[in-house]
């Protein structure tokens, strides 16, 4: 909730969150976000299909994960990574950079 509050305070509109890969993919089918924050692990499942869908749709995203950059799947090594734990201000700043603000 702290992260959601920080994003709302920064003027972001939130789509989600999604706890599973299936939920995330369904959200992407319903509405494309301007940018996305993705965890590498969604309820014990690798979120690679979500990352692939974001790339295919041209949606910039960053990974917020305790695994760090070493956990990025092949093909997504250039994606910005925000290592957990992080300050919500770091997240909003990273999203602003991602969106070109």
From TrEMBL:
Q: Where is the Response regulatory domain?
A: 1-99
Read off the InterPro entries from this record. CheY-like_superfamily, Sig_transdc_resp-reg_receiver
Give residue numbers for the modification (4-aspartylphosphate).
Answer: 39
Kindly indicate whether the keyword GTP-binding belongs to this entry.
no
Alphabetic keyword roster: Phosphoprotein
Give a yes or no for keyword Phosphoprotein in this entry. yes
Q: What is this protein called?
A: Response regulator
Q: Which organism is it from?
A: Plastoroseomonas hellenica
